[in-house]
Structure formats: structure tokens, C-alpha cells
Amino acid sequence: MKQIWAPWRLEYIASADEQEGCVFCKAVEADDDEAALVVHRGPDATVILNKYPYASGHLMVAPNRHVGDFGELTDEEALQVHRLAQSGIGALAQVYEPQGYNAGWNLGRIAGAGVVDHVHLHVVPRWAGDTNFMPVLADVKVIPEHLLETRQRLADAWPS
Ligand SMILES: [Zn+2]
Prior knowledge:
160 residues; alpha+beta; five-stranded antiparallel beta sheet; 6 helices; 39% helix; globular; binds zinc ion
């Protein structure tokens, strides 16, 4: 059972290069928040729900600007990405009451980044016992309705 590790992620990483355009830029430019899974928009950064989540409520915060070099983030972008991560954790706490979070940057394909040329911060809610991943696998089967509902609940719970 421990060998089951988000196999859909591998499929996603393998096909990420073949996708047209940048998923983050598409979300920034999208008119339809629901279709783009956008949870919250800021002037310098945007929060979207991960379509290939490690857990329910897995968020990604990206600068609005297409930038692949972590060191090139402006002060405004670096600050806003982290402020939005804080708010995202606030919304997740209200909706899902997770017991902990992982927040971090995967920089480069070897580090697990599915999209390497637009940096983004992952926020993954954690619960005791979630490492067997069966709940995660179960979630995947009910996509996309589950994702749409999750997006709406987090958007509604977003701290003002
Ligand atoms: Zn981009």
C-alpha cells in the first residue's frame, strides 16, 4: 500500500510539457474562475486549486507574472504569494479543519515541479493517517465535481 504514491501525478508530470500554454498564466487570464479553478485573485498573485491534488484542498499560489526563476520574484510578488498562502491556510482551516499543512516550492523537474517555468507555492492540508493515500485516491475518482465544490467552499471562506 505504501507504494501507492499519487500515480496521476506522474502522468501529469509526463504530459506537462505537451500542454498548450502555461496553466498559471491561463488561470490569471481566465474570465471564468470556476472553470480555471481560481480560488482567489490578488493584484500580484493568484490562488488556484490543484487539479491533480495530493489531498483535498491542495492549493497553489503563483505570481501573476510568468516567471520561472525563484530569485527573480519581486518583493511585492514574494510577499503577496506568502500572504495569500496565509489566507489560503485560513480558508482551509475553516472549511476542512486539517491538522497540519505542508507549504513549499518545487523548483525544477527533478524536485517534483510539474510546471517549471512559472514558479508556484504549494499548500497541502494534512491529516493524521493521510499517508496511506486511499482517501486521496478516492477523491480523484469524483473529480471534477469534487474540485468545483472545493473551489467554491474555499472561495466563500476566504478571509477578508
Ligand atoms: Zn505562466
